[in-house]
Write a structure and sequence with these properties.
The chain has 5 helices and 8 strands. The chain has 169 residues and is an alpha+beta fold. An 8-stranded mixed beta sheet has the order 1-2-3-4-5-6-8-7, sandwiched between helices.
């Protein structure tokens, strides 16, 4: 994917592009600003903290198995990360698990739906047979986004606190 511009529901112009190692600083800043609630909804644990070693790996994905995007906005002349999304191709090579994160102040502006849509398109381009995500049952926003894009939502077979969102792109 190449860089492209996208306009959010509130009219803000955003940049959607591949995640690169140079994004470490803006990604770390965005993660540190997340509310405890958003951290829990994304990482499924309370008290989650940024791990610089892990973050360095995240911003340097292997493009053969990970498709990672970042959404940025210009604020006061500086680039700011507002969302990120990625999928990880499983060992079978024909399915991938997705994950999304939208910064608190940018939620409910259509960014999550746009970002998941980009991941779906890339999954189609790569010929994947299945794209799925695990979502907390109380994460109504993410469940609505996945359903709006055609994902089938079911109770996770191993954990009733989770929902499984599955799409055959």
């Amino acid at each position: 994917m190449v860089t492209r511009q996208w306009q959010s529901k509130d009219g803000t112009w955003l940049c959607v592009r591949p995640l690169v190692p140079a994004d470490f600083g803006i990604a770390r800043e965005a993660l540190s600003r997340l509310s405890p609630g958003s951290r829990y909804l994304r990482f499924f644990v309370r008290g989650w903290r940024v791990n610089d070693t892990r973050l360095a790996q995240v911003v340097d994905p292997d493009p053969e198995v990970i498709h990672a995007l970042i959404v940025t906005a210009q604020r006061e002349g500086k680039e700011q990360a507002v969302a990120a999304g990625r999928f990880f191709i499983g060992p079978r090579g024909d399915e991938a698990e997705f994950a999304l994160l939208v910064a608190d102040e940018w939620q409910r502006k259509g960014i999550g739906k746009m970002l998941l849509g980009e991941l779906v398109e890339e999954a189609r381009r790569r010929g994947l047979k299945r794209l799925f995500g695990e979502i907390l049952a109380n994460n109504a926003g993410m469940l609505a986004v996945a359903a709006a894009l055609g994902f089938a939502i079911t109770t996770h077979p191993e954990d009733r606190k989770l929902r499984l969102a599955v799409l055959a792109p």
